[in-house]
Amino acid sequence: MANRLANATSPYLLQHAENPVDWWEWGPEAFAEAKRRDTPILLSVGYAACHWCHVMAHESFEDPETAAYLNEHFVSIKVDREERPDVDAVYMLATQTMTGQGGWPMTCVLDHDGSPFFAGTYFPDKPRHGQPAFRQVLAAIVEAWQERGDEVSRAAASVRAHLQRQGALGGEQPLDDATLDRAVDRLAPQYDAAHGGFGGAPKFPPSMVLEFLRLRDGEVARQMVDGTLEAMARGGIYDQLGGGFARYSVDEAWVVPHFEKMLYDNAQLIGLYARWGGPLGDRIARESADFLLRELRTSQAGFASALDADSEGEEGRFYVWTPGQLRDVLGEEDGAWAADVLQVTPRGTFEHGASTLQLPADPVDAHDAARLDAVRARLFEARTDRVRPARDDKVVAAWNGLAISGLVEAGLLLGEQEYVDAAITTAELLREIHLRGDRLLRVSRDGVAGPHAGVLEDYGCVAAGFLALCGATADPVWLELAGTLLDTALAHFRAEDGGFYDTADDAEQLVTRPRDPGDNASPSGLSATVHALTTYAALTGSTRHREAAEEALASIAGLAEQAPRFAGWSLAAAADQVLGPEEIAVVGPPGADRDALAAAARRRPGAVVVVADGPVPGIPLLEGRHAVDGHPAAYVCRHHVCAAPVTDLAALEPRGTS
Q1: Res 579 pLDDT > 80
Q2: Chain centroid to CA 138: how far?
Q3: What is the pTM for the complete model shown?
Q4: Labelling 3: which of 61, 257, 388, 602 has CA 20 to 30 A away?
Q5: Distance CA 256, CA 201 (A)
Q6: Which domains does the chain show, CATH number per domain?
């Protein structure tokens, strides 16, 4: 028998619709029910591609006895963190405050005002490794609620007060050149010179930090960028057959990933690898963009949130190989050769003697290169017969904004119009389904928008995607829509110190108004919005938007100084401002000459580029821009000063080495 979640739009909530737990969705009805019954609220937060969320669901939420206990003593609320990042942010901060760590599944217990007084992550069904069983935890909470209510109230009030004190790491000075140099200096000792990336295991793709370092250039920064991008591309975290990156590596050498593939990771990495360029960067960008179009594209032309890590009840089963499986597909000779080239060993690098595929080096010999291409194609085809991981097919506005930006970047730099066309249709979906007046809705599924309001990252990432399309197509509608979203962000999300809150001033009131300026696996709302504000100012000349970006960056100066690994996208925005940002209009008749000028302009680090036949009403950067003596020309402006137009390709060679 289905529970209340059967009516949800979230695939994660629908996964729990057949649980014997009497789940509620987040909302005032659940809190009213808890108050009526005088029970605590159990809040369980996760997401569809989360492996340990599945484990806890199977062990506890599908167990009739555990469910009966929950139904008797709690009002249980299930939240998809990707659908309600505001709820997730508040209670993740509480979990980290109370336990010193966080992650998913996240388990919090709240009073009737939503104040948490207990928090944790995964709890096993039986006591294990010094960790109590979930039922033991529940019983202790019930006993405290019923017998020591005053203690519970004091604990909840204390946590609530702590959450309400949290804010941005402030500052009043802009992130100047010296600040950026110090950030590079702080990052350098954390860099893993042996394996690439930063710190030890687990390792997440540091996309935003790498873009900052790419913009800073210099030998130290370049080594960190080159070493990390090559190591990830050659490791098991990258799908050597189908393209695309897994969410993170469980080891320091990028060999064994946690196998779920997230849209937000791949959307960022496509653009980053395209900007890095070279044979390896171009190949990874192209293969990963093809993965996006092939496996995450929805029938409505949006992009699904994620692919699960598990299939047939096992993590990674779809992706790993044994030597015997290689021989079965390729034959003895090619199977043995592939095992050597792709690091598939008899012992295995993963579970049950299987190995992830790695490619430590590209074949030097042309014959071997062709052989590898053929082997990869045959293995990819054979893999299509395996049971595929499940797909979380909800469309998240922010992550689709990232996908638009990544596909535009890859399409323009690689000369693949298909990617730009895909970005346009995704943007049209966001405009038609997610945009209501000047407000965004966060998620949709099957072409129907859910009820949840967009948060700041939705506005920043979607605006940035629209601006990327304006530069690629010279269609002013995308500039106008981006301006609408940014005006909403400035009117409803801005904080008193020039920074931003993550939720609007008229959004649902939670225990505290979330405000996290730090980047995680995807850009923070603040850093995404700063990038969009900077680009919008470059295209329009708007002083108001440029100053808003500068004030927002100043508001997180402390974070950038203290923890640059968690401020990479803000630092990249600051690096853009220090570089210029350059504003480049390439105009003239279509053809090879204009394409060459446009490509050179887009290779200039941090440049905002728009390409058109000539002036376009509604795009100020193109005003008065014409071909020179009938030849395509590039107009370059920086620091409010414009140089004479150039028609010579050499004049647009990138500054530094990208």
Answers
A1: no
A2: 34
A3: 0.92
A4: 388
A5: 11
A6: 4-165 (3.40.30.10), 177-309+392-579 (1.50.10.10), 319-385 (no CATH), 583-652 (no CATH)
